[in-house]
Automatic annotation (TrEMBL):
Name of protein: Response regulator
Family matches, as Pfam families: Response_reg
SUPFAM superfamilies from the UniProt entry: CheY-like (SSF52172)
Alphabetized InterPro entries for the sequence: CheY-like_superfamily (IPR011006), Sig_transdc_resp-reg_receiver (IPR001789), WalR-like (IPR039420)
Keywords noted in UniProt: DNA-binding, Phosphoprotein, Transcription, Transcription regulation, Two-component regulatory system
Alphabetized PANTHER family for the sequence: REGULATOR OF RPOS, TWO-COMPONENT RESPONSE REGULATOR ORR33
Residue ranges annotated for the Response regulatory domain, each copy included: 11-129
Organism expressing this protein natively: Pseudomonas sediminis
Keyword Phosphoprotein: yes
Chain positions with 4-aspartylphosphate modification: D61
Length: 130
């Protein structure tokens, strides 16, 4: 697990299977002022969500091996029903996003396409995590 400086007031759980993308994204999120717990897969993220650790947002790749991002979010919402989610994908996943939003209206959900536009990423995070 990669963890940025956690003196920040908002904490993000980042799930990304690509090592380089995960490290770079965690670094950017840290520069935005967030505390980041960066993991490579859904099961590891669920383990952390079972703890008392507070998270303001879950940012997950959709195309994770094994447990994909949609399955991760469904399981995460069983544990933390109001946890905001930002999906990340190399593809425009608007249909999937609409499906998740329709099923899961209790928590804010959005998506962003990789490679990230950093201004847009910062804006989406601010809107979701406050």
């Amino acid at each position: 697990m990669t963890e940025t400086d956690c003196a920040a007031t908002k904490t993000i759980l980042l799930v990304e299977d690509d090592d380089v993308v995960r490290q770079l994204t965690a670094e950017v999120l840290g520069e935005f002022g967030y505390c980041v717990h960066a993991l490579r897969d859904g099961p590891s993220a669920l383990e952390l969500l079972h703890t008392a650790q507070h998270f303001d947002l879950l940012m997950s790749d959709i195309g994770l091996p094994g447990m994909d991002g949609r399955e991760l979010v469904a399981a995460a919402r069983q544990l933390r029903p109001t946890l905001p989610v930002l999906f990340a994908s190399g593809y425009n996943e608007r249909e999937l996003l609409e499906e998740v939003r329709a099923r899961d209206s209790a928590a804010a959900t959005d998506s962003i396409v990789k490679p990230y536009d950093l201004q847009l990423l910062e804006q989406r995070l601010s809107e979701l995590a406050g």
